Here is the input.
Amino acid sequence: MNEISNETVAESGYRQIRADIIFGRLSPGQKLKLENLRIAYQTSVSTLREILNRLTSEGLVVAEGQRGFEVARVSVADLRETAALRLLLEEHALEQAFEQGDVEWEARLVSAHYKLARMEEVMASGDTSRAEDWKRYDWEFHQALISACGSRLLMETHSAVFDKYLRYQMVALSYRGGVAEEEHKQLLEAALQRDITTAKRILQRHIQQGVEHALSKGSLATIRLSAG
Here is the structure.
C-alpha cells in the first residue's frame, strides 16, 4: 500500500511540476531549489530528485551537477527545431488519421474544435486570464486531429514535442488572433473532407507563422532568449 501511495505522489508531483514548466509558472532558467520545491509540492526531496531527473530526460530541466537543477532555458534554435519536429510528426500522423478515421474520430474532432473556438473567442475579447485553458484546448484539438493514426507511440511522441512548442507560446503569450482561429477551422474542414494536401499546407503555415509570431514578442527577450 505504501509503495502504491508513493508512486501516486511521485506521478502527481511530476505532472504538477511539468505543467508549471510548460505553462511558464516556473520560468526558463529558474533555479529549482529542492527545499523550496518540497514545500511547494508537498513531496520528499528524494521523490523530487526522481521527478527532476525524469524532466531532465525530457529536456524540460537541466541538471547542473553538484549545483542542482534549473528549468531549461529557451533559444531560437530550439524553438525552430521543436517546430520542425512537430510538423514532421503531425503531418505523418495526419496521413494515417485521414485514412483510418471513422465517425467517432470525426465526432471527437468536432467537439475539440468547438471548445477551442469558444476559448479563442475569449482570447479575442482581450481576456487573457484563461490562456492556459486556451492552450489546453489547442493541444486537445491537434491531438484529436491525429487520434485515429493507430499508433500510441506516435501520439505520445507528438504530445511531448507539442508540449515543448506550447511552452514557447505560453512564455510569449503568443496569440495570433483571427488568423489562427481561421486556420483551425480550415484544418477541421480539411479533415472532415479527408483533404490531406490542403491540411498539410494549412498546418505548415500554422506552425511556421506561430514560430515567427512567438519570436516577434518582446516578452521573450526578457527571459534571455539566446541565438542558439
In short: The domain at 76-223 is CATH 1.20.120.530 (Four Helix Bundle (Hemerythrin (Met), subunit A)). The chain has two domains: 2-71, 76-223. The first strand starts at residue 31 and ends at 32. Confidence is low (pLDDT under 50) at residues 224-228.
